[in-house]
Amino acid sequence: MNETLQLFNLCGKRALITGSGRGIGLALARGLAGAGAAVVINDRNEQKASAVAARLRDEGFSADIAVFDVTNPAQVTDAVDAYEERAGAIDILVNNAGIQRRAALENFTATDWNDLLRVNLDGAFHVSQAVARHMLARGRGKIINICSVQGELARPGIAPYAATKGAIRMLTKGMCAEWAGRGIQANALAPGYFATDLNRALVDDPAFSDWLCKRTPAGRWGRVEELCGAAVFLASPASDFVNGQTLFVDGGLTSVV
Ligand code: NAP
């Protein structure tokens, strides 16, 4: 392998991807595994995580599981510590687990607001803290926080979701402030619109799809595999001097009005 390709090689690295039983998390797990990483599938359900990991192994990849709910700090710390003890270092963390709730801001329930914050923001904090303690002890690590175009642009009906993604951008900068000098590169990856369960309401709405395709310079929805190149870059030595950035993979949506 030539020197440039070597920069993107993840062989010998282990990547934990939260919420990787389906959707973008699963696509990123497959993408990182394709670049050589051993991947750790996280889900709250052990059977589901095991089935996904088995499917990836059938595809020729190295895949293991770590079962925890990102909103439960004790469960997260126990699972991460036990995993490191049993299997070895987690070199790459992708904070992907996330949820969406839709309602007019004036009618948004406190329960939905709290759920969004707990999964999208608290979850990334808990898992990063648990994993970073090990990374800091080793003096190296890569953290990729899955943000969104909504970290930059608001939309009616999802103001609280946008607030969590804006916060994730700042948490990423905070990680940079505290950990860049200690060997961890923390960056955010901000997808545009990708057809997954999270966006089911939009995918099923032809008027929204039509609007989106006109609004997006690339003229279409993203395909989840199209996030993998950016994830491999941010997980690999190719990004060793990239810290605290948000990389938008959005077909140009945030660049053009
Ligand atoms: P998705 O298909 O709904 O998948 C979300 C994943 O997160 C599922 O695997 C889910 O597990 C997991 N999860 C939810 N709560 C969890 C918890 N408490 N602990 C552990 N895992 C949990 O959504 P997606 O579209 O792939 O979204 C993934 C990430 O990308 C999210 O952070 C989202 O905000 C972001 N994003 C998505 C888009 C898009 O267009 N789809 C755009 C921008 C950003 P279960 O199967 O158990 O529910």
Automatic annotation (TrEMBL):
<dbReference type="InterPro" id="IPR002347">
    <property type="entry name" value="SDR_fam"/>
</dbReference>
<protein>
    <submittedName>
        <fullName>Gluconate 5-dehydrogenase</fullName>
    </submittedName>
</protein>
<keyword id="KW-0560">Oxidoreductase</keyword>
<comment type="similarity">
    <text>Belongs to the short-chain dehydrogenases/reductases (SDR) family.</text>
</comment>
<dbReference type="InterPro" id="IPR020904">
    <property type="entry name" value="Sc_DH/Rdtase_CS"/>
</dbReference>
<dbReference type="Pfam" id="PF13561">
    <property type="entry name" value="adh_short_C2"/>
</dbReference>
<dbReference type="GO" id="GO:0016616">
    <property type="term" value="F:oxidoreductase activity, acting on the CH-OH group of donors, NAD or NADP as acceptor"/>
</dbReference>
<dbReference type="InterPro" id="IPR036291">
    <property type="entry name" value="NAD(P)-bd_dom_sf"/>
</dbReference>
